[in-house]
């Protein structure tokens, strides 16, 4: 049984799918106007662990990640420039050039981190028709009003507003630092459709019953999730900054369909840098490319992510990344000394301990600890490697390609010479070479006349 912390009920709950044996899952993906940074990828790796866990538990998963290529404004609400249009202007390119380029870059890093691809990456601009008809449906049901710059959702009409985000109109009004659009009826109201500025032609704009314009940021996720996954979905994920965005998704979707939108809301905590926020101005917003340029393996970053629980913020430092890389290389070294699988045999106790912690709200630090316990145990090598590869279906550390890799020739030669001494009863020389091998990180285990070389942990 999988247990999930549901941000809506603020409780750990048993996972019960809508349809037995299948899971529908949606993750809010990147806004593709710039490079995704290692903070963003922490969220996608968390989502990947969750996806993999469902797969390992034999669920069939219908999984969607969206690509926001329109409508995300620079203040995350309804004012400011569209991030994509702004970048297009700055770089003298078309919006499509910008989004195509950053989608391509995103997918390269995505693969390097061994994040499994969803059934579909949905692009917001390919679902304009669905977004327009969703807004029309909300209008028909009386949840919207028009202003001089677009169509807005009236949050006072949705009783459950604030249940997920804890944001209520009064609080926002009290804490408002920015001037609230005077045409809004409630501070929490948000744009469903925005009209293009009269004096300016946008790269991306469409006809609609309300005039030429573009969809608000929140409506895309509702439209794509409803179209691809149905009116009620099992799991919806995103970073912890998206509570308000998700609250708006709930409002739009539930008011349009009259059904509950999502059963399990999940939010991944942020990656911090040196204890603080990542930001362009502090020059500490690293990409995977920056990590690689410093000689790190992308999977060391993945290992580093796994060292924290997805609901706890994780602090990135170069030292912490170095420790993750050291641990990962040690893991690879150990399995390099193993022979590839000849027969399937599992260490059931370790595997069930591993699945228990993974299934208990995806506790990856404990999962890694269980993996190391297995490696240090006296379970046979074949059983270890089979069990490890099964664990790696969740971890995604590419252990398989390191199994049975060659041991350096000089080590093989040393072990061979030692074995000759041993077989001829020249114990002192054999012992001396054993010590030399151990100092180089290898153990020899005698097996009759033969022997086995292993990496030391
Ligand atoms: P964006 O491209 O800004 O729309 O963000 C894409 C995803 O990354 C969203 O799910 C965000 O919540 C998430 N995200 C943004 N910054 C961070 C961070 N520092 N740590 C973890 N996730 C983040
Ligand atoms: Zn979303």
From TrEMBL:
Belongs to the class-I aminoacyl-tRNA synthetase family. Zn(2+) binds at residues 28, 221, 245, 249. The lineage of its organism: Bacteria, Katanobacteria. The keyword Disulfide bond does not apply. A motif ('HIGH' region) lies at residues 30-40. Its cofactor is Zn(2+). GO terms for molecular function: ATP binding; cysteine-tRNA ligase activity; zinc ion binding. PANTHER family: CYSTEINE--TRNA LIGASE, CYTOPLASMIC (PTHR10890:SF3), CYSTEINYL-TRNA SYNTHETASE (PTHR10890). One of its GO terms (cellular component) is cytosol. InterPro entries: Cys-tRNA-ligase, Cys-tRNA/MSH_ligase, CysS_C, Rossmann-like_a/b/a_fold, tRNA-synt_1_cat_dom, tRNAsynth_Ia_anticodon-bd. Residues 15-325 form the tRNA synthetases class I catalytic domain. Binds 1 zinc ion per subunit. Its EC number is 6.1.1.16. Residues 408-454 form the Cysteinyl-tRNA ligase anticodon binding domain. ATP binds at residue 280. Monomer. It catalyses: tRNA(Cys) + L-cysteine + ATP = L-cysteinyl-tRNA(Cys) + AMP + diphosphate. It holds the Pfam family tRNA-synt_1e. Keywords: Aminoacyl-tRNA synthetase, ATP-binding, Cytoplasm, Ligase, Metal-binding, Nucleotide-binding, Protein biosynthesis, Zinc. It comes from the Bacteria. One of its GO terms (biological process) is cysteinyl-tRNA aminoacylation. It is an enzyme of class 6 (ligase). This is Cysteine--tRNA ligase.
